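Hey, quick one: can you model this chain's 3D structure?
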Amino acid sequence: MGLEQEIEALLEVERFEPPQAFREKALWSDPSIYEEAAADPEAWWTAQAKELLDWETEPSQGLDDSNPPFYKWFEDGRLNASANCLDRHVEAGNGERVAYHWRGEEGEERDVTYADLHRDVQRFANALRDQGVEKGDVVGIYLPMIPEVVVAMLACARIGAPHNVVFGGFSAESVRERMEFSEAKALVTVDGARRKGKTAPIKPAVDEHLGDLGSLETIVVVRHTGIDCPMTDGRDVFYDEILAAADPECPAEPMEAEHPLFILYTSGSTAKPKGILHTTGGYLTGVTATHRYVFDLKPESDVYWCAADVGWVTGHSYIVYGPLANGATSVMWEGAPDYPHQGIWWELIERYKATILYAAPTAIRTFIKWGAEIPAKFDLSSLRLLGSVGEPINPKAWLWYHKVIGAERCPIVDTWWQTETGAIMITPLPGITTTKPGSATTPFPGVEAEVVDESEGEPIDEGQGLLVLERPWPSMLRGLFKEDERFVETYFSRFGSERYLVGDAARRDGDGYYWVIGRIDDVANVSGHRLSTAEVESAIVAHPAVAEAAVIGQSDEDTGQAICAFVTLRGGTEPSDELVEGIRAEVAKRIGKFARPKRIVWADDLPKTRSGKIMRRLLRDIAEGRALGDVTTLRDPDVMAELEAKIAEEQDED
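Sure thing. Here's the predicted structure for all 654 residues.
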């Protein structure tokens, strides 16, 4: 029987019990933990906070719900995130434990210990202060996957300067937008970034787009690739030079539990990104608890690899704060999954004897396409647990992951959560939960979710509806940076201030398991990266030949969703291959290469209501070959017939 037939046979299994050998050694193996947490969630979360974290002043209270939806947790407690990630491990005698096995894409290796991080974080915290950064000042971070990104984040946390990390794949123009919105006082960036053997100059692009930003007083440049870069006197400084000049000791400053830890901008249903604000005590409680128990982490023996990027929330929570707070040893990989060869991930697992892998379904689907013979060349026997993050995973990909990578011995934790939730919300517990391929299963203890109908918000015991979270949790966002009204409108206007609207559709089955389907708003999820369709539309319309554009996320077997753009050209302009590449280049310049449309459909007009609103729902239907719903509300119903003809013509050409 071939692999494909074996996976088809596994589809008939439907349920997978935790392996007995795993269950016997799991941190949590008793399902009564759910009942314990549900009986008094506030007390349960407070106990987790006190057990898992070191507090300068322990909180005397848990949840403050006096002003919903502006909830607060552990408000009278004081602690420091940097101290919880570093100092306490060093003081406990674990300073020589490796925090990160870092591997550069050209094969360079650095083992960074907790003592190494502790030393550099203290110096860089003082260096930031030397540059005038104070508690409450926002510091931007625009770095590739190198250890310095962790140093910068924890140095900010040490002195109470909220960090605003921007994914290294975003363009410098997107960086400017995020620095401008957050009024960043300093930016930490890099001379150049490497990708698949090529080096892109980063600092010149930063200068071009951020040179006149009024709030930005300092730009710190990490010399990573060694290429020359322009430096402006009085503003720009090199990371290594200010680190060497700084005082070596910087005691961690105790912060109020509700002090802002970071801002992270995520795509919304309008072109303007949302500044998700997370605070210190609640966020750290959520990521530390979920990292420890969802991954059954044993820091003395595990080597953990979250194959995400620090520029997204997955990296914040499960590359930096969660693993370091738990004293874990992690793998950090700078490069792409196919450079210098398509087996690099499996080479790294063999090299570092990784025991836990947390990856996106997009990557798994790519590996399926490349073939099982590639991972078969490497020794993956060290793996004991697999995780999935960023988007729903289809059952066949789940089963391939289970069989080919996990050799049918590793539980899979398929996790659902968001930038806004801060930490994992719906997930199996690997020593307890019977899993179903494609389902995130049930909420983490202390989290209460529901699937509700769209009209009245009534719970649906079995069936499809909107996913909501029913009670506050410690790691929830505290708002949108300087946009309180937008915060309420986005998450709490539909069903009231005590019920968080997730923005995803979901189905609940007869066993109470949750199956997350996808976004209900105008956000595309490409390879686990949330992109505002309006943001991409704005970039497309910036091309001089484009009059109008409408963007949707279309199902894609490789990336989950891909950007499909319906584009109307200005008068006198004819469609061409050159124009397609020009539009894609414009999007890459303004947002990043990962946001480029995979498909462009030329449209003479777009389906609009009589008030002028573009009906993207109809565009999704037509792009994916579904039957159209009611089109009588359109200003010109004939537009859909013309677009259907265009799609049919396109398919005939294929």
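One thing worth noting: The first helix runs from residue 3 to 11.
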